[in-house]
Every structure is written in structure tokens, then in C-alpha cells.
């Protein structure tokens, strides 16, 4: 149940961002969801590879390497990564908005009349 609330939170934040900068909100939602789950998955993979290198591949079968607090840690890393992607898209949207407000290339070289 908590996962559904978190997915809704991601959808709402990225959809509002897309609406603010005139982008497709479903694309932004999938970017946000993909960044959360992707970073969570990649951090778990890095942890498994680190355990395999440090303790050897035989230690991967050992249950002592897994702790339920690791799930929370990986989810936290995913949330931080998702927030980073959100901030990146927000700054990118701000830059695009500023560029669209500037005069177009058609007005270069024209003399303004008073």
C-alpha cells in the first residue's frame, strides 16, 4: 500500500512539472518512475557486486549478507535519485522557458523604429 502512495507522489510531482513547462505529463511520469526504480535496482546490483568481490562469490548464498534495513537504504537512494532527476528536469525547463522568451533569430540585424 505504501508503494502505491509513493507511485502517486512521483506521478503528481512529475505531472505538475510537465504541465508547468508544457511537456507531456505521461512521459515525465515514466521518467520519474524509471529513475526511482532504476536507481534502486542499480544500487542493489552494486551492493551485490561489492559483496561478491569483497567476500567472494560463495558468500552470496549466505543469508547474513541481507538485512531488511538494506531495502530501506536502497529505497532512500532511489528517492534521492528521483529527486535529482526532478531538479534536473526543472532546471532544464527553466532554461528552455528563458530561451523562448528571448527574441527570435528573425529579428537579428533589423533596425528598431521608434
How would you sum up this structure, described in words?
With 114 residues, the protein is an all-alpha fold. It is 74% helix and 0% strand. The protein has three helices and no strands. The chain has helices at 2-20, 25-55, 68-101. Helix 1 runs parallel beside helix 3 (68-101). The longest helix has 34 residues, at 68-101. It is elongated, with a radius of gyration of 22 Å. The N and C termini lie far apart (64 Å). The mean pLDDT is 85.
Highlighted features:
single chain, 114 residues, 3 helices, elongated
N-C termini distance: 64 Å
What does the overall shape look like? Answer: elongated
SS field, number of helical segments: 3
Detail the poorly predicted runs: none
Mean pLDDT, to the nearest integer, reads 85
SSE succession: HHH
**Helix/strand-derived class?**
mainly alpha
β-strand percent reads: under 5%
Largest pleated sheet: none
Helix content: over 70%
Task: Tally the beta strands.
Answer: 0
Rg computed from alpha carbons, rounded to a whole number of angstroms:
22 Å
The assembly state of the depicted protein chains is: single chain
Amino acid at each position: 500500500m505504501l508503494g502505491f502512495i509513493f507511485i502517486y507522489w512521483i506521478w503528481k510531482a512529475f505531472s505538475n512539472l510537465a504541465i508547468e513547462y508544457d511537456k507531456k505529463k505521461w512521459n515525465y511520469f515514466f521518467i520519474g518512475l524509471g529513475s526511482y526504480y532504476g536507481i534502486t535496482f542499480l544500487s542493489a546490483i552494486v551492493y551485490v557486486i561489492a559483496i561478491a568481490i569483497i567476500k567472494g562469490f560463495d558468500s552470496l548464498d549466505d543469508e547474513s549478507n541481507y538485512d531488511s534495513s538494506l531495502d530501506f537504504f536502497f529505497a532512500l537512494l532511489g528517492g534521492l535519485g528521483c529527486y535529482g532527476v526532478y531538479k534536473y528536469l526543472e532546471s532544464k525547463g527553466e532554461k528552455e522557458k528563458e530561451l523562448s522568451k528571448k527574441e527570435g533569430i528573425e529579428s537579428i540585424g533589423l533596425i528598431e523604429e521608434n
